[in-house]
Design brief:
This protein is an alpha/beta fold. The chain has 13 helices and 10 strands. It has 2 domains: about 210 residues, Rossmann fold (3-Layer(aba) Sandwich); about 100 residues, Rossmann fold.
């Protein structure tokens, strides 16, 4: 079942004791490059260094509300490229819940180390995200528990939507919000929040060219299987679950989807470090890459969501040190 606008407002009330609004600041560099006033919504500075804490905490708080008897609370199972898993582990530790997390074997070490640090049961042997998701579902069938998807879950989407409310409150005249697009949970939540605020703001989703389930699916009008290839935007890579509630939401709420390549991602990561003193992961840089490369129109204030900073140092150094393509 898809979340409602009311669910997003309830999520904000639920999360208020746990999460503070994240900063939003104007980027003189990106405004100059893109040709219009551009602001960065810095979810990389959120707890667990990504926006995923919003949906994870909201989903687990809802589970606690529905199971007031601590002894009767179920085990929670999820799949993640890393950020959702870290957020779930953090929230579960705070709420006293057992959580089992499946990630790909090549998920960044920083993300996997943080998951273990918060006491979660981590299974990191899957060859890719799609396999991790299949293993998580099989685990629930065999052992029980509740599966909470990193994107295909109404409480996760509603939690992500609180970010959209903060954007409108900080910039009421926002004209375009540029959103990294993986499973579509963030784009769906932000789109619902903007609609609730009665703004005319456009939502532009950005996929890595190496993994384009929405580009392919929107062209066909149905969820479409793709073959992802390696990408710096590891948090966006993978297919959609069959019947994912995010697909129709993105169809309704996202005005355009664009893609960016690996060289553009590296350039955006390098520029964010040099100009904004921000060390961010590839998934977080796709919106900036799209703006810097001119793929997004900038009539009126634009907000680019910088979604996370969980990247291995060696990977970051290699990415920003790579020579620019000619």
């Amino acid at each position: 079942m898809s979340p409602s606008v009311l669910d997003i407002f309830r999520a904000r009330t639920r999360l208020r004791p746990w999460l503070a609004p994240t900063p939003m600041r104007e980027s003189a560099w990106l405004s100059s490059v893109s040709g219009g006033r551009t602001l960065l919504k810095l979810e990389s500075l959120n707890l667990t260094n990504s926006f995923k804490i919003r949906g994870a905490f909201n989903a687990l708080l809802r589970l606690v509300e529905s199971h007031p008897d601590r002894a009767a609370r179920p085990m929670v199972v999820t799949a993640s490229a890393g950020n959702h898993g870290r957020a779930m582990a953090f929230a579960a530790e705070r709420l006293g819940l057992r959580v089992v997390i499946f990630t790909p074997a090549n998920a960044p070490l920083a993300k996997r180390a943080a998951i273990r640090r918060h006491g979660a049961d981590l299974h990191d042997e899957a060859p890719d995200y799609d396999a991790a998701e299949r293993r998580a579902h099989a685990f629930v069938q065999e052992r029980g528990g509740v599966f909470i998807s990193p994107y295909n879950h109404p409480d996760v989407i509603a939690g992500a939507g609180t970010l959209g409310l903060e954007i409108v409150e900080a910039c009421p005249d926002v004209a375009t919000v540029v959103v990294p697009l993986g499973g579509g949970g963030l784009a769906s939540g932000v789109g619902l929040a903007l609609r609730a605020a009665a703004t005319r703001a456009r939502v532009v989703g950005v996929e890595a060219a190496a993994s384009t389930p929405f580009t392919a699916g929107l062209a066909r009008g149905a969820i479409t299987a793709i073959e992802p290839t390696p990408t710096l935007a590891d948090g966006l890579a993978g297919n959609l679950e069959p019947g994912a509630i995010t697909f129709p939401l993105v169809q309704q709420l996202v005005d355009a989807v664009v893609t960016v390549g690996e060289d553009e991602l590296r350039a955006a990561m390098r520029a964010l470090a040099a100009e904004e003193h921000l060390m961010v992961e590839g998934s977080a840089a796709v919106g900036v890459a799209a703006l810097a490369s001119g793929r997004v129109a900038t009539a009126g204030p634009v907000v680019a969501i910088v979604t996370g900073a969980n990247i291995d140092l060696a990977t970051f150094v290699a990415a920003v040190a790579a020579p620019a393509a000619h």
